Prior knowledge:
The chain has four helices and eight strands, in the order E-E-H-E-E-H-E-E-H-H-E-E. The protein has helices at about 30-40, 80-85, 125-130, 140-145, and strands at about 5-10, 20-25, 55, 60-65, 100-105, 115-120, 150, 155. The model has no long low-confidence stretch (mean pLDDT about 85). The chain has a two-stranded antiparallel ribbon. Helix content is about 20%, strand content about 25%. It starts with a strand and ends with a strand. It is an alpha+beta fold and about 160 residues long.
Amino acid sequence: RQCHVEVSTLSRSATLPLTLLSLAPTSTKNHLIRVWTASKGHPVLGDHLYDYRVRTVLGQQVLQAAEPGKNRTQLLSRNVLDKFGLNKGDTWLLPVYIHHWRRYLPNWFGKDNHLTIYAPPPSHFIQTLKEGSMNLDFKELVANDKVTTFESNKMRRM
C-alpha cells in the first residue's frame, strides 16, 4: 500500500545535530514515522526500536539489520549526551520525541465540514527544544497550518 509523507523543517539546532520536523503521513500504522525517519538516516530522538537501522561506516550512512534478542539503545553524539546530562548507555531514559500536534478529521461534521484538533507539545518536549537551542512558536504553527490531503495519488492543499 502506498503512503505519502509531507515533510517540513520547523527548526534546526545550531549547536547539536537535532532538527524539529513536521511530518504529515497518510498513515501512522506500524511505526511508519519511526521507520521512515530512520531509513532516511535521521532517527527520532529517543527511538530505540528503529535507531539501529542506520549507522555510519567510513563517513557513509548504511542500513543494517537488527540483531535478534539484542538490547538496543540509541547512539547519540557526545555533545548531545552532555547537553542532556546523559552518559553512554543512558539513552533509554529519553522518551520518544514524537508528538501528534494536529489531528485532521475530514467531513467530521458532514460533507466539506472538517474538524482539526491541535495539541501543544508537552513540557518535556519544549524543554528539550530549549536545551537544543531550537524555537517552536506553537501559536504561529497553528495559525499558518495548511492541511494536505492525498487523494488518488494527487496532493491537495486545504
